Amino acid sequence: MKFESVDSYLRIMDIFDEEIKVLSRQLEGLAREDEDVKLLMTVPGLGYYSALLVKSEIGDVNRFPFGERLCSYAGLVPSTHASGGVVRHGGVTKEGSRWLRWVMVEAA
Description:
By secondary structure, this protein is an alpha+beta fold. Helices cover 62% and strands 12% of the residues. It has helices at 2-33, 35-40, 48-58, 67-74, 98-107, and strands spanning 78-83, 86-92. A two-stranded antiparallel sheet has the order 1-2. Helix 1 packs across helix 3 (48-58) and helix 3 packs antiparallel against helix 5. The longest helix has 32 residues, at 2-33. It is flat, with a radius of gyration of 20 Å. The termini are far apart.
């Protein structure tokens, strides 16, 4: 009886695996058709999934006049505290797009 339930779960997992494969092929097709995504995929550590995520989170990169603004949007800049002429830098701000920050940390 216990083995029947395990077999049932294994069959369900096989169905999910097939659906994941179908979706992965669709995402690869989207990546091959998008020039921005193809360019992003030339960055070491960025595959088709990561490049699609970066593009979807950033949108039009031209809305950021400087690279620093994009880094700030991603929450990948150090926090800064200033008081009495003393400036201290801390960890990343973790503000902005958490998904963009996550994918960039994973790629690194």
